[in-house]
Amino acid sequence: MKKIGIGLFVLLSSAVVSAKTDQIVKDARKTIRNAFYQSDGNEANKVRDRLNDAERKLLELLPNQKTAREKAQCYYYAGMVQKRFNAIENTKLYLKLQMDTARFYDSLYKMYAYLIKCDSVEMTGRKKLHYRKKAQEDLMRYRHNLLNGGRYYLKKKDYKEAYRYLDMYLWSADQPVLKDYFLSQIDTLYSKVAYWATTAAYYSGNNEGVILYADAALGYSKNKTYIQEYHCKAFLATGDTLGWLKSLKNGIMNCPEHSYFFTNLMDYYIRTKQYALAMKYVDHMIYYDPKQPLYWFVKASVYMYQKQYKQCIDMCKMVLSLDSQHIGGHQFEGACYYHLAANEVDSMRMVPVRDVRYSKHRKRVVAYCREALPHLRFVKEKNPDDAKRWAPMLYMIYLNLNMGREFEEMEKIVATLNTTQVDE
Description:
Elements: H1 2-34, H2 41-61, H3 68-94, H4 101-123, H5 132-141, H6 143-155, H7 159-172, H8 176-183, H9 190-203, H10 207-217, H11 224-237, H12 241-254, H13 259-271, H14 275-288, H15 293-305, H16 309-322, H17 327-348, H18 356-382, H19 391-400, H20 404-423
Helix pairs in contact: 1-2, 1-3, 2-3, 3-4, 4-5, 4-6, 6-7, 6-9, 7-9, 9-10, 10-11, 11-12, 12-13, 13-14, 14-15, 15-16, 15-17, 16-17, 17-18, 18-19, 19-20
């Protein structure tokens, strides 16, 4: 008898819930059917309140719904509430009255969200989908206005809100309720909208959004270089080093004229001492454009960091043959000769003064210093306030070339630098 009583109670409870659900859905349908634009402000507020109340009650029903069909029903009519809100604002537009643009687009976005959720929920429990065709018709009918919402906020430079609509436009095309539709025709706007979405995501600081749509955005012919750069920066911001490197390499291959990709990849490889990989991409870029000083200079940098000074000097000569005013080329060539001279000084100290080798080392020291001098003087002239770049090297050069007056001047500058470093 006890089991029978419990079973009867469950049946009665289910019947009560079902009756309540039926009544709320019935009331919601009536509210939706009778909701129209009202010119009187008080009446307009009443219409809005009744629609909001209907939506609230439908959503409150959801936790108690047992079947997928019942849950789908709640989402569907919540979507119809938002469709009615949209229709009311559209009526104002038709009557050439001031409409609430934000509400117009927001209701459309919510309708999309509810109808897609309706289809998704119903799929979990039924082979025959009661709401799919109706939902699909509304989603396709209003799809262009969803895109207009994204463009509206782009023009206002509200990039966060613009992304919300553009993301819904793109994401919804891949949902089951619409996916079958797009199997038979191509959404020709997809790559263009992906470009807008990627841009909106970038300017709103949404790195995940950039990563999500950048590949599709690259299918659009406009501003591919910037999209590729946004892609790289998004990976870097999220700490995805592998994604960042891959995107940089793609940028080098697809947008070789944009130095951002090359310089960042080279900086990473040199910083991590992956010189062979750095050289591979440097040589690729030199083959692409042998008259670009940047590529030769980076190759010089790779040699410099490996302390291959003579090879670095050869590269610097290539840089300066293409751009005689290239400060980096002058600095690196001067620095290489300085280091070669310093190495000879070290070797000279290891042998007696009267040894023939001492004289040979001394001659090489002088020769290297003379080669370094014009380059480092050029750097000093162009960057007089950046003494750290040239003063220590010129100090040693003036000393070894017996340039007394210049040496005394440089000695004072170096002393000032040393004092500053101690104070810091």
